[in-house]
Design brief:
By secondary structure, this protein is α+β, with helices and mostly antiparallel strands. It contains 14 helices and seven strands. It folds into three domains: 160 residues, Butyryl-CoA Dehydrogenase, subunit A, domain 3; 110 residues, Butyryl-Coa Dehydrogenase, subunit A, domain 1 (Orthogonal Bundle); 119 residues, Beta Barrel (Butyryl-CoA Dehydrogenase, subunit A, domain 2). It has a five-stranded mixed β-barrel. The longest helix is centred in the last third of the chain and has 37 residues. It starts with a helix and ends in a 9-residue tail after the last helix. Keywords: FAD, Flavoprotein, Oxidoreductase. Its cofactor is FAD. It comes from Streptomyces tanashiensis. This is Acyl-CoA/acyl-ACP dehydrogenase.
Length: 421
């Protein structure tokens, strides 16, 4: 951008563009990245540039698994992403949410399909928090080395089960003692049997282990429990569903008198663990969205530059640059919220849902602008823009919408007059 173009922008827009980094690092108000965090970012970025381009992702989503198994083996094994946040005693790296958020931002930049979200972000924390010592010893090392992938199956929308858009202590989302949902009953041998169906289960068709939320006890002892169901369990039927976002595979899971193992021991705070996992997952989803939004913005800036020609009217270009400056500020604000939430102490950062709301809005805005500018610019570029827009819409359907995430965050912080549980 030359001096005349810069002068045409407002002061705030000039500052936003001047502050734009060549590649996003830490959020402006978060702690600087450590040398180890920088290494995680750059190593993963190099691998994804090699194995997760648009063509490679398209081929990966067409496989039965829905992702590149060889790429996941490298991500989980040499890079250790599958066990990045798991305790070292179970083969993990013992790192915190900030390191995992960095990894999610990089996978989000290229929209790489992988089991990272379903296995590492949604399921592993619940196994670590609620599992018996024997269950943790058996399952967590296999997750850490990438040999076991998992999926969380809930009978209604996952956003409510994780407490992202409402209070999950109302048992109706898991069945509530009524027909529907997924019901758990005691078998004659003392084990458990599951009946019911869950839809929109992320990676549900390919995961080696399902963690199923089911309602037990009827009205008398109504409660929600979590159960372990292996992929080869009799009575388990899994069907891959068409999905708006091809890089986020989903499945319908049917349980027909399926034997299951209770996760942990009763009594356990299952709903509290689900809510804490949801708030932490919101940070990782926000990091993914920030990465995707940043990449979409980079492509749009590049496309805008290619449209500049000598003698061409500059008015439309100036307007577009004003819009891109605003979008840059929106993406950086979302990144700042995301990494501030990632650095919150304790499990289940309260800032997660709010960060996710801002990140989803930033992704939707940048993807929409990218889609408009790339129309007619070539099939490959236009397809990338469409995938970004689909990711934004799909994540809002699964984990939002943004307005409900923001409302729930306000409710939890007592902004509606009474602090939520």
């Amino acid at each position: 951008m030359d001096a005349a173009d810069t002068a045409a922008l407002t002061g705030g827009q000039q500052d936003a563009l001047a502050a734009a980094p060549a590649e996003p690092l830490a959020a402006p108000h978060a702690a600087p990245l450590t040398e180890e965090q920088q290494k995680i970012r750059h190593t993963l970025r190099d691998l994804l540039a090699e194995r997760a381009g648009p063509h490679e992702n398209r081929a990966a989503t067409a496989t039965p698994e829905g992702y590149d198994t060889a790429l996941w083996a490298r991500m989980a094994g040499p890079l250790g992403l599958a066990g990045l946040a798991l305790p070292e005693e179970y083969g993990g790296a013992g790192r915190g949410p900030a390191e995992l958020a960095l990894a999610c931002e990089e996978t989000g930049r290229v929209l790489a399909p992988s089991p990272l979200l379903a296995t590492t972000v949604l399921t592993a924390p619940l196994l670590a928090a609620l599992g018996t010592p024997a269950q943790r010893t058996e399952l967590l090392p296999r997750i850490a080395d990438g040999s076991l992938t998992c999926a969380l199956a809930v009978p209604t929308g996952i956003a409510l089960a994780l407490g992202l858009t409402g209070d999950n202590t109302d048992g109706d989302w898991s069945g509530g003692g009524r027909s529907g949902g997924i019901q758990a009953t005691r078998a004659e041998d003392g084990g458990w049997r599951l009946y019911g169906e869950a839809a929109q289960v992320i990676d549900g068709h390919s995961a080696g282990l399902l963690l199923v939320a089911a309602h037990a006890g009827g009205f008398a002892r109504s409660r929600t429990l979590l159960f372990l169901v292996p992929a080869d369990a009799p009575g388990l039927v899994r069907t891959r569903q068409p999905a708006l976002d091809l890089t986020r595979t989903q499945a319908t899971v049917q349980l027909r008198d399926t034997a299951a193992e209770l996760l942990g021991e009763e009594p356990a705070d299952v709903l509290g663990a689900l809510a804490a996992t949801g708030r932490a997952a919101a940070v990782m989803l926000a990091a993914e969205a920030v990465g995707a939004a940043g990449a979409a913005l980079d492509r749009t800036v590049e496309q805008l530059g290619s449209r500049e020609r000598p003698g061409r009217p500059a008015g439309s270009v100036h307007v577009a640059r004003h819009r891109l400056a605003d979008l840059h500020a929106q993406v950086e604000a979302a990144r700042s919220l995301t990494y501030c939430a990632a650095h919150e102490p304790g499990p289940g950062p309260d800032g997660g849902p709010l960060a996710l709301a801002h990140a989803l809005e930033a992704l939707r805005a940048t993807a929409g602008e990218s889609l408009q500018l790339h129309a007619g610019a070539g099939l490959a570029r236009e397809e990338e823009a469409q995938l970004s827009f689909r990711r934004a819409a799909s994540d809002e359907l699964l984990f939002g919408p943004a307005r409900r995430l923001r409302a729930r965050a306000a409710e939890r912080n007592g902004l509606f007059g009474e602090e939520a549980a």
